[in-house]
Amino acid sequence: MSKLYFEDIKIGDKTEFGSKLVTKEEILEFAEEFDPQPFHLDEEAATNSIYGGIIASGWHTGGMLMRMMVDNMVNHRAGLGSPGFDDLRWIRPVRPGDRLRFESTVIEARKSKSRPDMGIIRAQVYLYNQNDEKVFAVKTIGMMKTRP
């Protein structure tokens, strides 16, 4: 597959892929290392919490989104990294057994004013669970090479 360059991306372009099965083991492993709150780690505490059971850390959900993006998009583009994200939202808990699906729509594509060899792509990105419920939302900002 040839790489996509800035000129290949247009406002309104939609990208969809999935799926990522979320396991209890990976939720616990991530939480133990990075977000050791009871509703991520302890079945009884999680059941008695407002979530009614073990849920993935929002940061874990973001990490899963990033892995899906790299595997399915980023490594197929002439990317230059990202200066960050906007409007990150954890919309609904991600639970063991959920199957995540990715959807992205380009909302802005502009050439850099200071670097003519680079363009900026902004996209609205969502993760959905197996019930087509939004679980995560973020606006991504990607820097891409222009076609040589």
Question: How is this fold's topology laid out?
Answer:
Layout: E1 14-21, H1 24-34, H2 38-41, H3 43-47, H4 58-72, E2 84-90, E3 99-111, E4 118-128, E5 134-145
Antiparallel strand pairs: 1-3, 2-5, 3-4, 4-5
Structure, explained:
By secondary structure, the protein is an alpha+beta fold. It has one domain: Hotdog Thioesterase (Thiol Ester Dehydrase, Chain A, Roll), CATH 3.10.129. The protein is built from four helices and five strands, in the order βααααββββ. It has a five-stranded antiparallel beta sheet with strand order 1-3-4-5-2, covered by helices on one side. The two termini are 17 Å apart. The model has no long low-confidence stretch (mean pLDDT 96).
Q: Report helical residue fraction.
A: 10-25%
- The count of domains is 1
* Overall average pLDDT: 96
Number of helical segments? 4
Cα(first) to Cα(last) distance is: 17 Å
Number of DSSP strand runs: 5
- Structural class by sheet pairing and helices: alpha+beta
Offer a quick outline of the entry:
This protein is α+β, with helices and mostly antiparallel strands and 148 residues long. Helix content is 24%, strand content 34%.
Give the key terms:
Thiol Ester Dehydrase, Chain A; 34% strand; elongated; five-stranded antiparallel sheet; 24% helix; 5 strands; alpha+beta; 148 residues
